[in-house]
């Protein structure tokens, strides 16, 4: 009896190359719509004059209290909480009052 020969099947894969895309050509100048000429602007009052005035915003007592509270805490933290809380509070009040009065 004949022994069957093992045949190896060769598979071929076809590689297709994708053609490089060409960049789009710029449109011709003739296809653009003509731009209307701008009208000269009428003389306007400068808006910067209104913005130049500094805003004087007053803070409320709650916000002032919170600012002093936070400043006193950070002062105490820097000092290792070794001093008196009243001393930290008064120093913070002085500092915040100076900063807000400028």
The major β-sheet equals:
none
Cα-atom radius of gyration: 40 Å
Distance between the termini: 112 Å
Overall shape: it is: flat
Summarize model confidence as the mean pLDDT: 75
Topology diagram in text:
Layout: H1 48-52, H2 61-78, H3 85-101
Helix pairs in contact: 2-3
Question: Any overview of this molecule?
Answer:
This protein is mainly alpha-helical and 102 residues long. It has a domain at 58-102. Helix content is 39%, strand content 0%. It contains three helices and no strands. Helix 2 (61-78) packs across helix 3 (85-101). The radius of gyration is 40 Å and the shape is flat. The mean pLDDT is 75.
How would you describe this structure in keywords?
102 residues; mainly alpha; 0% strand; flat
Brief overview:
The chain has three helices and no strands. The chain is mainly alpha-helical and 102 residues long.
